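2.7 Reproducibility. Because tokenized structures are sensitive to small changes in the input, we list the exact sequence used for Cobalt transport protein, including any N-terminal residues retained from the expression construct. No trimming or masking was applied before prediction.
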Amino acid sequence: MIKLNPGYKGLTIFLVSLLLSFEYNYYLNFSIFCICIMLMVINKVPVKKILLAFLPVLLLAGGVFFTGMLYSNSGTAEDVTSLTKTVVIIGNVENGLQLSVRILAYAGLGLLFVFTTDPRLFIISLMQQFHLPGNFAYGILAAYGFIPVIRQEYENMRYAYRARGVKRNIFMLPILVTAVRSSESIAMAMESKGFNAKSKRTEYIKLKVTKWDYIVLIGSTGITLLAMFLF
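Resulting structure tokens (single pass, no recycling of outputs):
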């Protein structure tokens, strides 16, 4: 899946997510979740990375499950346990499953896209295949490039405050100043290189759309629609 066009991959995941929003079935949502996990493993995403990413999602899904089970009035049948004398309403359990598994399905689709897609290639695909204006695209790329800079600046300031014995973590103002200075430097560099959003530009990386992109797009949406009717 990594070799697919990033833009069409994102479009495929968006359409599948949109179709899932119209279906309230935990069998389908859980199937999508399992398929996403399988595709991550096939694409050689480290299992540890997958587990760490899904840990907060599982906690959230568990909380939503118990909330939907305990505070819902949609049950139609009851099963009273003799040990705890607790009334478990089957409809409430299904409601909790529907809510929690939907979270897993959407998280699986999102993490599948994040773990198998290069953000820079995704922006380039939006420019070439979906005609995203260059000023927006380069602005997004510049913001993405700021992330490691801000992270490193945060670490530097944290060590500097610790060396001076300052206990208050006043990081926002210095980080803001650094971000403004860096943005001004990037803007001047782009102007000095003759950047103009309206002018025609050459492309160092040329992404293509292959038949597999259309097959995955049509096949994924078609299978999801078919599963919605079957389930």
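The CA atoms of residues 35 and 108 lie 9 Å apart.
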